[in-house]
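Hey team,

Filing this mostly as a record. A colleague (T.K.) asked me to run one chain through the structure pipeline before their review meeting, and I want the input and output archived in the tracker in case anyone asks later how it was produced. No errors, nothing strange. Just documentation.

Input sequence:
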Amino acid sequence: MKAMHWKVLALVGGITASSHALFGLGAHWTPAPGFEIPSSEGVLAEGGGQSIRILQPTATGLQGFGVKLWLDFIPVVDVEATANVMWGAYDVSLLYPDGGAGHDTIPLNFDLEVPFVEGKPHLANVALDLSVLYPVLKFPPMVSIAKIYVGAGLTYGMTTAVLDQEFGKAALSNVTFSPIPSEEEISEQLIDAIVNEGFKMGMGAHLILGAKVKPPVIPLAVYANLKYYFLGTLPDSFDSSTLMAFELGAGLAF
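Output structure:
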């Protein structure tokens, strides 16, 4: 009986150990469907009775991807490091030379020369996260194949500028209307300005609600997270410096 007892304990212990990965490496899809790039319009430059106006309508939603490394061997809490890249296209048009009747709306062609990417300006956001997770529910209790957790952490965020009225006005501050610049010259100057602006960088924080499933024996885990970022790196034209995104992915767990 004692021999059988120890065999059962060994079997249960083996299953339990194999279901708790010491670390994992995963990749995920990172959509942010509720994110909004606010609209903007107004005069960028004027002179000699002429003006250049911008129309930038509201755009919603970001898409992206990310990678994750997690550590599960620390007592009480788990730790993970994540890198997410998200982006979204938006429209920009110019009313030129004065935006009056009879003048066409000219879409700004922002050709990134990247296959399958729209020829429009893009907002890009990069988030590097370090998170601490606390499992609030594990089931089944002994093996813990699945767990639900909450957590928080720090974020190093990087975000590109948005080509709105405020940015465009600064970019065209030196434009003169004698002679009147061509549409191509104005477009090139705006595109060069947004490209040269680079990233706005800063520290922020985030909250997490998520779930992870790690079957016994198989070195594979799937996870789903909802992250709420307090980035502090979005352009000033945004009403809020927050961003909510999903992480839906899978990875190897050992």
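Quick notes for T.K.: The chain has three helices and 13 strands. The mean pLDDT is 85.
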